[in-house]
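wait is this the right file?? whatever heres the structure
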C-alpha cells in the first residue's frame, strides 16, 4: 500500500499528475480502511440522518441547514445505497479539500514543497479518520478550502466568474453549518488586511459575490422564519450558563487540537532538521506583505475565532468542530519555518505515510471485530438487520411498501437507509422535527414504530396508538459479522396500519 502513495514521487513530472495520484491514493486507501475497520459496524447516526433528510430535500432541518443533505441526495442518485458508497463519499469529500489546498499552495510554493503542504495534512486526523463520518462538520473539509481558494482568486482577478463562484461556495458552506460564518469573517479580515484592499473594494467583485450569496441563502432564510424549530434554536441549545464548564470545554478543545497536531509537529521538526544546512535559494520565498497577512489570517483565524466565540457566547465546543479549521496548517508552517523540502525528503515522507496506512489496513479487521465484540461506539447495534426484518414483517402484515418509521433514534434512522423501501423518518414523533410529515401522509402510509425494549420514551409514544388498528411483535437480535457475535438487543415493534387518523404530536417532545 505504501507504493500507492510514494509512487507519484519517484519520478519527475508535472505537479498536476503528482497531486492527482496522491488524491486517488487517499480516496482508495481510506475507503478501504472504512470497509475493513467499520465493516462490522453499521453507518453512524449522522450519516443515516443525512440520508433521511436527503430523501425529502428540505430547505432546512431542525438541526442543521440542508446543503450536505442535498449532496447526499445527489450522490445516491448515482451510487447504490451501500455502506461502501457512503464511505467513498466521505473520502472523496476530504480529497476535494486537499485539492483546494494544493491550489492555494500554488500561490506560495512550487515543486516538492507545494505537494508537501498536502501530504502533511495526512498526518492530521481531521483529514483522515475524522473525515470518515460524513456530517455537517466533515463536509466543511471541502467547502472551507474552496471558499478560501475562490476568495483569493476573486481578490486577484476581480472578475464576474470568480465572484459568482465565491458567492455560491460561501452559500454552500453556510447552508451546511452556520459555523461557516467564521471562514467568511476570515475572508473579510483577509481583504481588509491586504494593501490592495482599496482596489478590491472599489471593484464590483465583492458586491457581486455578496449578492449571489444572499440570493442563494434567501430560500433557507425564508424557511427558517416559518419553521417551528430550526438550526438557530439548535445552536442555542448548545450554550450553557456555567462559565466554568464553558472554560473547561474550551480548554479541552485547545488541548485536543494540540495533541492531534503531534504527528504533524514531528514531521515538521524532521524536515527542519534535515534541511538545516540548505542554502537560502532552496528555501521558500517569503511572500509579499499582503499574501503573508492573508495566509496568517486563514491559518490561525478559524482557530482563534472558534475559541473567542465559544467564550463570548458560552457555546460548548468539542474537538469535532476543529475538522475544517486547520487545512492550511502545513502550508503556513512550511513558509513560516522556511523549510527546504526536496523530492528525496518528500519521497521519504510519502513512504512513511504509506507504511502507516498499510499498518492501519492490516490491523483494521481485527480492530473492527474488537469494537463489535465490546460494543464500542455502538458497533454491536443491529440496525441493518432490524431494518430488513421490520420491512419484511410490514410487507407480510400490511402488504404495502414501508413508508414511514419512528422510534428509538438509531433504528428509525437506520431503517431509512437499510430498508429496501427507504422509508422516511418521523423524527421523535414530532412534525416540529419532521415538518414533511403531516396527518394526511401518516394516514396514507401508516407508521412502523421500532423501540428498544428498554427505551421508555419510545414505548410511551408507541402506547398512544392503542385503540387503532395495530400489530405488535417483540424479537431479539444479536449481530454476527466475520465470525464475531455482538451482544443481543431486544425490540418492541408496533405497526399502525394505513387508512387511519393518527395523532401527530408527541406526548413528550424529545430534547435535542
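ok assuming it is, sequence goes like this
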Amino acid at each position: 500500500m505504501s507504493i500507492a502513495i510514494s509512487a507519484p514521487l519517484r519520478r519527475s513530472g508535472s505537479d498536476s499528475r503528482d497531486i492527482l495520484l496522491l488524491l486517488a491514493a487517499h480516496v482508495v486507501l481510506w475507503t478501504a480502511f472504512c470497509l475493513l475497520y467499520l465493516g462490522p459496524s453499521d453507518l453512524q447516526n449522522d450519516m443515516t440522518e443525512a440520508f433521511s433528510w436527503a430523501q425529502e430535500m428540505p430547505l432546512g432541518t431542525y438541526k442543521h441547514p440542508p446543503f450536505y443533505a442535498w449532496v447526499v441526495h445527489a450522490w445516491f442518485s448515482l451510487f447504490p445505497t451501500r455502506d461502501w458508497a457512503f464511505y467513498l463519499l466521505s473520502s472523496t469529500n476530504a480529497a476535494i479539500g486537499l485539492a483546494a489546498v494544493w491550489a492555494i499552495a500554488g500561490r506560495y510554493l512550487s515543486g516538492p514543497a507545494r505537494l508537501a503542504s498536502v501530504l502533511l495534512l495526512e498526518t492530521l486526523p481531521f483529514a483522515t479518520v475524522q473525515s470518515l463520518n460524513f456530517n455537517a462538520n466533515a463536509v466543511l473539509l471541502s467547502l472551507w478550502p474552496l471558499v478560501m481558494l475562490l476568495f483569493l482568486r476573486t481578490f486577484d482577478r476581480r472578475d464576474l466568474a470568480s465572484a459568482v463562484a465565491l458567492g455560491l461556495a460561501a452559500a454552500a458552506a453556510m447552508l451546511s453549518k452556520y459555523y461557516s460564518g467564521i471562514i467568511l469573517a476570515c475572508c473579510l479580515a483577509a481583504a481588509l488586511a491586504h494593501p490592495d484592499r482599496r482596489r478590491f473594494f472599489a471593484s464590483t467583485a465583492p458586491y457581486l459575490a455578496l449578492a449571489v450569496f444572499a440570493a442563494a441563502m434567501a430560500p433557507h432564510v425564508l424557511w427558517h422564519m416559518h419553521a417551528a424549530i430550526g438550526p438557530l434554536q439548535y445552536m442555542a441549545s448548545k450554550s450553557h450558563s456555567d462559565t466554568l464548564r464553558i472554560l473547561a470545554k474550551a480548554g479541552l478543545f485547545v488541548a485536543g487540537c494540540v495533541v492531534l497536531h503531534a504527528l504533524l509537529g514531528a514531521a515538521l521538526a524532521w524536515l527542519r532538521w534535515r534541511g538545516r544546512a540548505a542554502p537560502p535559494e532552496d528555501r521558500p520565498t517569503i511572500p509579499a506583505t499582503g499574501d503573508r497577512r492573508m495566509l496568517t489570517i486563514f491559518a490561525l483565524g478559524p482557530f482563534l475565532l472558534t475559541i473567542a466565540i465559544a467564550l463570548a457566547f458560552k457555546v460548548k465546543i468539542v474537538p469535532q468542530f476543529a475538522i475544517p479549521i486547520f487545512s492550511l496548517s502545513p502550508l503556513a508552517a512550511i513558509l513560516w519555518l522556511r523549510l527546504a523540502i526536496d523530492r528525496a525528503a518528500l519521497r521519504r515522507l510519502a513512504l512513511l505515510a504509506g507504511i502507516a496506512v498499510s499498518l492501519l489496513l492490516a490491523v483494521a479487521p481485527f480492530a473492527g471485530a474488537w469494537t463489535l465484540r465490546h460494543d464500542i461506539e455502538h458497533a454491536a447495534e443491529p440496525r441493518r438487520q432490524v431494518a430488513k426484518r421490520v420491512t419484511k414483517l410490514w410487507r407480510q402484515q400490511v402488504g404495502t411498501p414501508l413508508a414511514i418509521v419512528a422510534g428509538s433514534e438509531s433504528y428509525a434512522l437506520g431503517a431509512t437507509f437499510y430498508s429496501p423501501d427507504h422509508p422516511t423518518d418521523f423524527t421523535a414523533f414530532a412534525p416540529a422535527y419532521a415538518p414533511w410529515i403531516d396527518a394526511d401522509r401518516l394516514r396514507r402510509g401508516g407508521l412502523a414504530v421500532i423501540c428498544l425494549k428498554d427505551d421508555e420514551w419510545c414505548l410511551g409514544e408507541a402506547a398512544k396508538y392503542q385503540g387503532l388498528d395495530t400489530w405488535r411483535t417483540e424479537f431479539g437480535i444479536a449481530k454476527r459479522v466475520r465470525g464475531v457475535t455482538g451482544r443481543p438487543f431486544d425490540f418492541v415493534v408496533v405497526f399502525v396500519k394505513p387508512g387511519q387518523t393518527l395523532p401527530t404530536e408527541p406526548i413528550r417532545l424529545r430534547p435535542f
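The CA atoms of residues 403 and 423 lie 4 Å apart. so i think its the right one actually
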